Amino acid sequence: MKKQHVILVGAGLAGSLLAIYLAKRGFQVDIYERRPDMRQASISAGRSINLALSVRGIHALSRVNLDQRVLADALPMTGRMMHAVDGQLTYQPYGKNENEVINSISRRGLNCLLMDTAESENNVRIFFNQRCLGGDLEAGQLIFRDEARGETRTVSGDTIIATDGATSAVRMEMQKIGRFNLSQMYLEHGYKELTIPPGAGGSFQIDKNMLHIWPRGDYMLIALPNPDGSFTCTLFLGYASTPGFDGLKTPADVLQFFQEIFPDTIPLIPELSEDFFSNPTGNLITIKCLPWHIDGKVLLLGDAAHAIVPFYGQGMNCAFEDCAILDDCISEYGTDWARVYQAYQEKRKADADAIADLALENFIEMRDSVANPTFLLKRKAELLLEEKYPGKFLSKYSMVSFHRTAYAAAMKKGRIQDSVLMEMCEGLTDIDQLDLDLAFNNIQQRLSAEAESNDS
Amino acid sequence: MKKQHVILVGAGLAGSLLAIYLAKRGFQVDIYERRPDMRQASISAGRSINLALSVRGIHALSRVNLDQRVLADALPMTGRMMHAVDGQLTYQPYGKNENEVINSISRRGLNCLLMDTAESENNVRIFFNQRCLGGDLEAGQLIFRDEARGETRTVSGDTIIATDGATSAVRMEMQKIGRFNLSQMYLEHGYKELTIPPGAGGSFQIDKNMLHIWPRGDYMLIALPNPDGSFTCTLFLGYASTPGFDGLKTPADVLQFFQEIFPDTIPLIPELSEDFFSNPTGNLITIKCLPWHIDGKVLLLGDAAHAIVPFYGQGMNCAFEDCAILDDCISEYGTDWARVYQAYQEKRKADADAIADLALENFIEMRDSVANPTFLLKRKAELLLEEKYPGKFLSKYSMVSFHRTAYAAAMKKGRIQDSVLMEMCEGLTDIDQLDLDLAFNNIQQRLSAEAESNDS
Lengths: 456, 456
Fold this sequence. Notes:
The structure is a homodimer.
Chain A: E1 5-9, H1 13-24, E2 28-32, E3 51-53, H2 55-62, H3 67-72, E4 75-77, E5 79-83, E6 89-93, E7 102-105, H4 107-120, E8 124-127, E9 130-136, E10 141-146, E11 152-156, E12 159-162, H5 169-175, E13 181-196, E14 210-215, E15 220-225, E16 231-238, H6 251-261, H7 272-278, E17 282-290, E18 293-294, E19 298-300, H8 303-306, H9 315-333, H10 337-367, H11 373-388, H12 396-401, H13 407-425, H14 436-455
């Protein structure tokens, strides 16, 4: 069999990991990346929401023996620490035990490791500064301009996989071909990166094993730890709302806003207004599209196919799981790319839609519901149910973050569970007042009823 | 005041009419049209669903004194004639009297008249063969390639209005700018144009004052009359369904399909398989996007902003109404284009969304519900209510087609009326069994209840 030649567009997290998977199958892999090599150039800073690596990402990394190396550079976060305006702290664990954590990790370090690993395979090449200008997708051809040299070339291989992210140039080409369904929806909110630097001697100024949230209803600030003692903070705020990015025009505006709303962060973020005005304001987009492929010629994977907002910490995990599932489809159908891509799309589309919706919902949970007493009781009930009914009850968060339940199934089951538990927790003042067995039985009944109504 | 220079992209129906509006205000208008001049070249045939001109379009034409000239070439259609498989005919009037008709008109003739009228103004120029390659929208610049001469030029004016249709090149440029929300959704159905030629001596082979429908559940055939005695037929059919376009591969397949499903059309469409295989299969798309403008620099109008499926006969009518409403906004805000466009968008967005949804729903009504006895009774009830309660009751169809009720209001009110009447008609065998006064009162009650729940 002729050695297959696969063109990848984009050497981000998904593209770099996928290259490793494909290289291990013996394919020749060429990656065309728009940006310079981040291992040499100074990376554009100020737009890197920290990543929370969890079970799906870890599993996908483990299949190419990278999980332990990656986790070595990560900081486990055991739960959420909520900071009220008056400084009061409320802690909410993510899991029922210390193994159920999510892992704070820097995008840059992980991406560099994945590129290094990919290039250490003999059959992977990465070309940088290659801007995709479009192409003839039905012919399997793409045109790239070398932004450093100004040259343009046409590239083709046995197949093309676009891992070029939310603003995918390849997806924009697919849009020009008939019957490509697409929805791209921006939040009314933008985000701004800020930094809590390390304390004396590289110490952490706030608890390093938690994801910190300052929930404020319509908006919020979060902070994730880095190994050097710093925290990467992200302010999620509406543009046109009050307060909003549009109204924060001067250092005095920003300082006053933080003093009023996030007073405990004032001593933690010394470069507040410098960060605020030098870092760009990022946008938050949800993309759904179909088809993801054109026969066997081109496939969209990761954010290029299904960009999601970051509030479930699943963007990278989902993209990594994409790689593993595509790899499974190659196991099944070989290099019959049309069949591989169709099987992958059929397997994956509903799950990608589901995590997109879950991520949007989780924004409300993070910025608002975490300050709702009924919601806090519900989260406690979930952990108690997981302990009391091991293997029989899993919360939605747990199915998504600590198990590899298909996203669509997790969403459907999770919503039913949430609805029963929120109803039962309403009005309670302490979790001891909840009859766990009754809650479990109510949930089972609702799940059975739902399953029956689906069958009939 | 300096004479304003407006660039229009696209000399289709919306662009040509808008040019006339703008010319009458004294602006210099340059239209850049991708195709050759259809008044000279042979137009690409076989993809022109006939148009049904109704009140919104007539009103917009009347404001530039074109309504009577256009209606002179139109054929009024008083209602739908449904053709069952066994040849049985069922007639359903559109309106309560002979003035409530929709008007069958050819796209080509109307477009030519509008271009002629635009060019007869001293301050309008149309450039043909101009393909928009993109541009710098924030700078108000567009790049066009002259497809006949191979030259490229950059164009700018005081403002740009994109009337370049469902596949708008300008909209694709807006997509590259941050926070542009877009949804483009194709139906699973395509369409194919067929022709019923004139009978002996230019006679009409079927009734010329009706819109003919062969409703078949998931798909349908329709026919609209032309002044020369012919009918333009359109088959709306799924691609992958059974039956479906994908399965109709040979003349024998097509003939058998029509013999079984549309037997009464066999003698009417002599060139059936020639038409079928030489005409392209068209796609049906719904587009929603926001924002429609970038400050005062660029505006999307007509299909470019809100392409809809053709089943309510409102695509052109809506685009023409767009022109009239934009003209109202110019009356109010002059050439402060940013304010004009923002006011226009705020006035029009909800209505464009509503007619998009109504058009999708009407596909089901045309292909399926028109064969449902309860639905037929409901339509009768509507006309009786309009007669009995003049000025107090208007059906949804009437609000959309014979009145200029805002689309969003028509949709909301119409849905409530439909739900009350469908419920009351369920199980009846004759319209005499319906208590019209009770129906009217029930509707009023539901409308009041709805209005109250919105207020509170």
